[in-house]
User: Fold this.
Amino acid sequence: MNRYDSIDCPICGKPLKDGDVVVCPECGAPYHRSCWQEEGCCVFPELHQQGREWEPPVREAPHPPGFVCSRCGTVNPHQGLFCQTCGNQLREGPVPSPFPAMGGIPLNPYTTPFGGLSPEEEIDGIPAQDLAVFVSQNSHYFLPLFKRLSTMRARMINWAAFLFGGGYYLYRKMYGLGLAALLIQGLVWAPYFLMYIQALTSGAVTETAMVEIGGVSYLCTFLDLVVRLFCGMSANGFYFSHCKRKISRIKARDQAPEDYRAELARRGSTAAKLISVILVGCGLLLLVSFLLLLPSLLGGG
Assistant:
């Protein structure tokens, strides 16, 4: 192949072809033979004056159609740094995150954020990639579950909701349900704590009183277990409805795609900070209660 096959003629701008090229004897610029004869001279007199040789123009490498995310398979713009769907880093090396506080889906090399579903597959009219960005934590678990919930009344216990009750709902930003569940759990255990505190403060810690308190404790434990079972069995369905409702509201705002995904990640990210504050508050409340009861306990001893 001729060395000038990829070069355009400086006069007519058309590609040079093998066997139809003449070169300026002074600077080496290539031309079509017919163009050179018609022009009668080289069109780069400044190179002759400077004693420089002609150099082929530097062509920019064609941009690839896009970066395919190795994590979720989404085709991203070639200039992108992070996947538009799952936030995975598209390039090697230390690249600063453009959305440091946006959240997104935590990287887990052993799972995919869509749980085996296609990113474009819709669940009750919502694309799986939108649900994955909104759910963030454990999207690989929830998306197949949402798929089953959309086609059948599947019941699968959510063990996190069973263990933490209303705290789990708060963690997933279902604040109304979380507060209601915590209130019910508090009411369930209220008789036990009231009887126990009354017995300590009055100094009537008798064997009969402790038997009565123990009986109330068994009843409260049973009722608390019922509440926890309800939370565990209902959490996935409630959360699916919560996701659909919130995503539909965000989508109705008709934002730009990047703003839409940033809003999904922000609204759907977990309330880990809120849960930390609640746990610290509960710990302080228990500590204060213990300090207030300490004189009674010491006096009763």
